Amino acid sequence: xxxITGRIQQFIENSPGFTYxxxxxxxxxxAIWLIRFIAIRIINRKLxxxxxxxxxxKNLTYISVFLGFLIVGRIWFEGLQSVATFLxxxxxxxxxALKDPVSDxxxxxxxxxxxxxxVGDRIQIGDVKGDVIDQRLFKFxxxxxxxxxxxxxxxxxxxxxxxxxxxxxxxxxxTSNFKFLWNEIEVLVTFESNWEKAKELLQQISDKHLExxxxxxxxQVQQAKKSYLIYYRYLTPIVYTDVRDSGVCLTIxxxxxxxxxxxxxxxxxxxxxxxxxxxDDIELAYPTMRxxxxxxx
Length: 297
Hints:
By secondary structure, the chain is an alpha+beta fold. It has helices at 2-14, 16-46, 50-76, 83-97, 99-114, 165-168, 195-224, 261-277, and strands at 122-125, 128-135, 139-145, 154-162, 171-173, 181-189, 238-243, 248-256. The chain is 52% helix and 19% strand. The protein is elongated, with a radius of gyration of 31 Å. The chain crosses the membrane at residues 20-39, 60-77.
């Protein structure tokens, strides 16, 4: 042990420049970490909103890492003429050796700049659907929905997605700009039912449940038109008529908040069942088979 300690001491005495660089690097890292820690404590006290705190924490982390990388790099590479030369050589080496991480970093910059999604948005990218709960330098994290769970509700699984998927996979955002989805509920009644009365009842039920949603959707459409060419002729719920093998299909097409789709469908279905139960001339249809037997001759 004394031999190892002696060698280390001898190395330090023989390499004062190296020792100075190590100590200075450690001091810089600790100083940046302390500044970040103090800033986060102040932000947590001044800003009570969790989402804003999260964004400040992430931004301070990115700034701290960048400054630390820049300052420590200058300490160890004083022989280079400029920081630009150092960064250029480093980025060229990384681009060759680390293709996927470099792609992830480029996609991270794209996500920050163009904002195809943000923390809190509900998205589908490739086969992954869920709510974005975290964004980092090389990946973002999604709280999964769907899969074996119906109606876009949470499965409880946390899925980590590489940032470069933003370049290579199709991306659908459920909640950006226009925070509504079009949903459809199919109600099948028998051919013998009074389908016109059933259609009128469905229209009344959907109008009752969706009055507030239509007003909010109209405001959001006007806002979304500033960024996209979005045009809807009607935002009110509509009941369409179609014919299936088992009966007349009445489809309620309506707007829904992506996170309330299941609850809204349940409320509409419960009112439909209660309403149809009060009318003897309306019956729900289901697949049946009728057999006609010819009498013996």
